[in-house]
Design a protein that fits this description.
- The chain has one domain: Rossmann fold (3-Layer(aba) Sandwich), CATH 3.40.50.
- Helices cover 41% and strands 11% of the residues.
- It has 19 helices and ten strands.
- α3 links the parallel β5 and β6.
- The N terminus is likely disordered.
Length: 479
Amino acid sequence: MRLRTAVGAGLVAALCAGTAEAQPQIPRSGRDPACPNDSLQLCLQYRPLGRLGRSLDPAEYRYPFHDPYLATITVGGVSPDGVTRGVKREVVHVQGLPGRDNLPLLNGRGEVSVALYRQPRPAPLLFILGGIGSNPYFGLGTYYAALFQKSGAHVVVLPSPMTWNFALAASRSGAPGYTPDDARDVYRLMQETLTLLRARYGLTVTSVHFMGVSLGALEGAHVSVLDADEGRIGIERYLLVNPPTDLAYSLGKLHEWQALGAALGRERAAKVGFKARALIEDYIEDRRTNRHATFDRATREFARLSREELQFVIAQSVRLALPELVYVTQAIDDRQVLKAPRDEGRQRLREAKAITLRDYENRVAVPRQQLQDPSASAESLNERGSLRPILDRLRDNPRVHIMHNADDVLTERGSVEELKTVIGEQMTLYPYGGHLGNLWFADNQEDILRYFGAPFTPPASASGAAPAVRASAPASAGR
C-alpha cells in the first residue's frame, strides 16, 4: 500500500509513462566483503548478518516514528512521482491475453506494461511487486528498483494484480482479488516477461529473485509455492515485506477506516483529503526543483491530524486505485455493477468512484469466483487466499524470508508474533514501522540488501542522495 496523488494516475498517463530517472536513499554502510571483486555486481549470496532473522529490541532499532499510523503515512514520501535521479528505466510491453485488446474504449491497450532497469552486462534479475493499486512507475517499486539497479541487478517492476492494466491484460478472470488465482497470473506474467527480455532485449539473466510488499508479498508467497511445485522459473530467493497475515482482517480495517468519512462529516473529511493531496503534491513540486527535498514538512503536518483522520487518509489512498479497476472489470464482463451505458466511459468512471473495497469484494470478485465455485464467499476466498493455508510450505522453503513490523496497522499484533514463531529465523521482526513505513529507513534498506547479499554503496551524504524522511521529524501523532 502507498500514498499517491492523481498525478499520472489516469489510463492514458499510465500507458504513456516513459523514460525517467531515479535515485534512492543509500544506506549507511561500506562495501560488503561478500563481493570483493566487483562493487557493481549484485552477489545475491544469502548471509544472515546483524538484524536478519531476529525480533529486534526497540532499544536497538532507532526508527523515529512510534505512532504506527504516522509511520504508515511516511511511505508517501517514497518516490510519489516516480522520478528520482541517476537511474534510467524503460517501458516494456508484454503481450496480453487473447481478446483483451479490442474491448470498447480500451482498444490497443491489451498489453501489460512493466518497468525495466537493466545492466549492460550479465546480472541477476529481481522482480518487484507492490501492493493494491501500485503500478510500475510510482512509489516503492521505483524506489527499490533504483537501489538494486545501482547494486548491479536487472530489475523489473510489475503492476499489482489490483490495477486496471493487469486486470485487462493479465488476469484470466478479468476480476482480480482471489490471491491464488492472482498469483498464478503473476507467475505467468513473470515467465513471459523473462522470455521477452531474453529474446528481444538481449538480457543475460544469471539468476531470478523476487521482492513483494504488502499484498504483493502475499501474492509472492503463493508464487513461491507455484515455483517450488512447477519450477518454470527457478526463483532463487524471495523477500516478502509486510504481507497481510489475514486478508479478512486487513480488508475489514480498511473498510472501517473508509467509513470514518461519515463520522468525520462531509466537510471535515473533504478538508482532510484535500490537505493530504496538497501535502504530497507540494512535496512532488519541491522534488522538481530541489534534489535534497525531504518529506519532513509533510510529516509534521500529518502529525497534526487525529488518529481517525490518519486512518481515513490511509483508507482513501487505497481506494484511489479502484475506479479504473472496476471500469475495466466491467468492460471485460459486465455484471451490471455500473449502470451507465458501456459507451459512456467518463460517466462509468465517475460512477465507479463510489465503489468501496467491500463493494468490489462482494459485487465483483466473489460473483466472478462463483462462476467456477458456486459455494464461494468472501469469507472462503479470504481464508484460502491468506498466509495460513501455505505456512508450512513457506517454513519448509529456505528460499523465503519475511520482514514484518510488530505494529503493522493492517495486521493483528498477535498474528505477526505467531507468524514469527512458525517461520523462525526466516523472518525479521521490527518493533516499529506501521505498514511499510520503514522501507525508506536506512537500517531496513541495509537489511534488505544484506538479505540479497548486495554490496553497499557510499552513504547518502557522499552521493548527494536525499532521504525521504529525516529522523528529526516528530515521532508521534494521532491526538
